[in-house]
Amino acid sequence: MFSIYSQPDEETCYLLTDSGTRYLCHLSDEKAVNSEESMLEKPSVQHLYIADVFVHDIKLQIRMNFLNHLDTWLVEAKKNSDHATIAKIEELDAEFNLRTQLHIPRAKRIEHDVYNVRAGELLLHSNRVAEHCQGVEKALTDLKMKFFSIKQQQEKMMGEFQNEIELMEPAFLNITKSGRLITLRNQMSKEIQKLMVNIRTSLRVFRVELDQALQTVRESNASLVQNFRLFSDGGNFCPEEVSQFQETIEDLSKMIDENECHILVEMEGMEATRFDQASRITIEFEDRFKNHIFDLLFMETIARWLTNTQVQIKTHVAKNNTSSKDLSNFLSKLKQNIETCEQPNPDLNKVSSSEIAKMFVNSMEMINSRAKYLKCLKTNEEAVILVPCQTALVSEIPSVSKPGKTMLEDSSVVMIKSILRSQKIPETVEETPESSTEEESSPTSNQENSNDTSPNIKTGKTKVKSSVLKSVSRIYKRHLIVNHSTKTVKLKLNFGEGEEKDLEEQEIEEEPSDFLGVIKQLVQNTFVSIGAIAEDYYRQKGSRPITRPQALQDTYENCAVLLGDKLVSYYNQAKEYLQRCHTEFQCQLEELENLAKRIPLCCFVLFLNNTCTIWMKNFLSGRTHSKTPSSTWKSNSNIIHICFNQILVTHKKLPNCRNSMRMKQTDIINSI
């Protein structure tokens, strides 16, 4: 069935199949034989032992059968594979033919698809550029909107600033001091500075954001241009597309530059515009309340004048109180000295009659000066009448100009008359009615004034005549000075009935010395001054309404009346105070009168004590030398006795001579 070809000294052999195929086979080594011989020597395994040859033959047979089957299977497998290959080829040919038939229109379709893809690329490029342009435009629009919001924010800040300025209106309306006005003006300046700082800060922040946004947009433009690569450079853009898109990007860059320039130009002028707007708001506010400031300054000026007048009046009142207090202290001291003289005390200082007399003279001088200051000296009725008739005065006026001519016939008087005739006094200067002044006299001045009536009458009439001329001239001049506007207003206070004459006499005097005259002149001068100020204020005010109707009047006339009433109230208060001073002064006069009744006897007693003491010493010393007194001594003693009796008779209110010292002195005189 098969054949084996072995090679000597080799462990391999060749097997030849039925089909003539030869296969190489490896043989086992001889050690197995040696082992077989060793196994057969054992009796226990002789019946169980299988020979190696038998095994070898079986292996060879199995191999040959397998190889024969393999040869047969190869033939059949080749046939089967050939049939399968032919069938597969036929199937593939059929499929190829089918696919060929199916792909015949695909070329056109591919060409069409290529055109569509390119068109899609072109559309994609256009959309990309369009989206980029839209993004840039949106960025620019956002910048514009942000800039617009900045402007709206600044407008809101300006509105808030204007509201803050408007909120100052109540302060301007209710303000009472110009210093507060300066503070409010400074506050408005600070508000402007604060507003400008906020505006500059917002503009600075927006400028940084603008630069960053524009830089980002420009960088995106540059990157987009760099992405425009040609087909030759590995891109998908044609030259026509690149040139077209570059033109679009250039237009976009120009638009960016234009928007940037427009925003920067507005930003450059915005700060100055806001500052001008804020300044205009404050200026309009100040212009609107300029009248308030003007009225307030006028009110402060009037208040300062009135306050100054009150201070001056209080100064004169304090001066008067000091004078009254000094007089009271002096009278108390005089009373103390008189009591010391009347009731001698070794513990107290001795007072001489000359000191008491000197103090009495000083007290009379103080009384006289205080009476003049209080204007309570008794005057002659003829001296206070304002020239009732010129013909009645001719015989009483002394001839002082030329001998043989009266005063009214003198050339100077004639010249004054001619001047007065040529000058026409304006109608606004009204004649003051003649009224007699109130006379207040002290009890001690009756006898003195009654003794000196005739010389005072002539002197008073002469002074009155000259005072009338001076008064008319002064009133006329003052009218020309004060009434320099178109309106003519009489700047003259109405102190009440009976005060016009005193006012004219006060105008004649340069500096009145009495208390009420000083107050009158002070009040009148204040009225003239504030009247001129008020007239100037109302002339500058014009027809505009006043800003403080609760404190100011509409017209100059009403203001003058109000100020006049105010000053007249000051005068009336001073007049009431003067009445109290008169009462106090009357008490001081009564006290001085009581003291004056005690002074003569007191001084005479002192003089008598001193004289008697001296004469007694001389008498005793002379009596030792001579037994009879001299005639001089007798005459002196008679004079002293007569004077002492006269004092006792004259001062009836004095107590009788019950004092032991006085009685002793009287006895001495009688004995003499």
UniProtKB/TrEMBL annotation:
It holds the Pfam family DUF4456. Residues 533-606 form the DUF4456 domain. Residues 424-465 are annotated as: Disordered. Residues 428-441 have a biased composition (Acidic residues). Residues 442-451 have a biased composition (Low complexity). This is DUF4456 domain-containing protein. The lineage of its organism: Eukaryota, Metazoa, Spiralia, Lophotrochozoa, Mollusca.
